[in-house]
Amino acid sequence: MGSLLSSPSASGTTAGFEYIFPAIRGIQARREFYVSMCPLRLIPKIFLFNEDELAPEVRAQRVLNKARVPALASYIIDNPTDYVFSALTASVDGAMRFVGISEEGPGMRIGQLLIPMAARFLINDGQHRRAAIETALTENPELGDETIAVVFFQDAGLSRSQQMFADLNRHAVRPARSIGVLYDHRDERAKIARLLALKSPVFRNCVEMESSTLSARSRKLFTLSALYYATSSLLQGIELDDADEAAKLADQYWTAVDALIPEWELVRARRMAAAEVRRTYLHSHGIALHALGRLGNTLLQISTEPDSWKPRLGPLAKIDWSRSNHDWEGRAIVGGRVSKNHSNVVLTVNYMRQKLGMELGPEEANVEATHVRGER
Q1: What is the per-residue pLDDT for 188?
Q2: Which Pfam families does this one have (predicted)?
Q3: What's the per-residue H, E or C state across the chain?
Q4: Mind listing the pLDDT tens digit for each residue in 103-150?
Q5: 290 pLDDT exceeds 80?
Q6: What is this structure's pTM?
């Protein structure tokens, strides 16, 4: 598995030496390619990446985003018995030689792939995984014995390598955040959001679990991703023993909010359509949930007695949540459309804080001042 073979007739430092990979031979687009398993310790040594100084038109990859590497490396280090990495794809600028275990039958496709050590390996897909592996190995060298799948193609020049990169990423679609939350069993906040969506009387049967957007005809009021971000903001910095206790506190908060927003109950009772509520009111949109979460976080932080935060929510019942309310323009709504960038979330929280008679923090005051100046 990544062993070396030397040839006594070769000269030079690496000439005549070869990497030997156990491999399976395949055909795509009438071109041979090979799939092998490489030890992680070999990845940083043979897959070199130093194209930062090259212009984009003469590179075959995007520039490495170094900010992504620590998180990927931590993912490996923190989950040594549970991480999953997909295959690397590489082009080999050198003569590859495949030796099957037999000359006919299935054995023709199984054998050894021999690659000269002098060959260059170009990563077409997986440069960030490669960098993360290198970083992880410095902290946990024992990972070096583990393996990752590598797909080898013959390097057919810069144009072909650039086309491979384009093709490999052409149809890549990042999964919706909601389904990511649904399937994430490491993130405690994701667990809390799932518990609320599945068990809380406020959210049960009202949360879209897969998509992060709701169609015009959807019967759901909220998305799981919106509930995730809102509840994460609610519990930010609050010390609790476990996810169950956090979920219980979150359920208490959202139940208190629910009592002040009658339209949510009307949807659950099927006296109003979810689509009508979303179309008419703001309170079921992600920005409102997020703002309510941040508002609740402040109340929980400043409360000195259990449940003393509940009466302070009372003024929320008097808020005009209708999207036609001009107070939302420039805050949660821009040009008639709901906008959820950071400043809009802050301005929406500010509006609620003012209704509850709460002071604004420094960042909130600055954003509010900018908003007020823009209205003049």
Answers
A1: 92
A2: DndB (PF14072)
A3: CCEEEECCCCCCCCCCEEEEEEEEEEEECCEEEEEEEEEHHHHHHHCCCCCCCCCHHHCCCCCCCHHHHHHHHHHHHHCCCCCCCCCEEEEEECCCEEEECCCCHHHHHEEEEEEECCCEEEEEECHHHHHHHHHHHHHCHHHHHCEEEEEEEECCCHHHHHHHHHHHHHCCCCCCHHHHHHHCCCCHHHHHHHHHHHHCCCCCCCEECCCCCCCCCCCCCEEHHHHHHHHHHHHCCCCCCCHHHHHHHHHHHHHHHHCCCHHHHHHHCCCCCHHHHHHHECCCCHHHHHHHHHHHHHHHHHCCCCCCCCHHHHHHHHCCCECCCHHHECCCEECCEECCCHHHHHHHHHHHHHHCCCCCCHHHHHHHHHHHHHHC
A4: 887 878 999 999 998 888 888 888 899 999 999 999 999 999 999 999
A5: yes
A6: 0.76
Residue where the block lists tokens 């910095």: 237
Q: Between β-strands 222-223 and 207-208, what pairing exists: parallel, antiparallel or unpaired?
A: parallel
89, β-bridge pairs: 125, 151
Instruction: Let me know: does 193 contact 88? Beta carbons within 8 Å.
Output: no
The residue with greater pLDDT, 268 or 59, is 268
pLDDT of 61 > 80? The answer is no
Closest-CA residue to 284 (of 180, 342, 208): 208
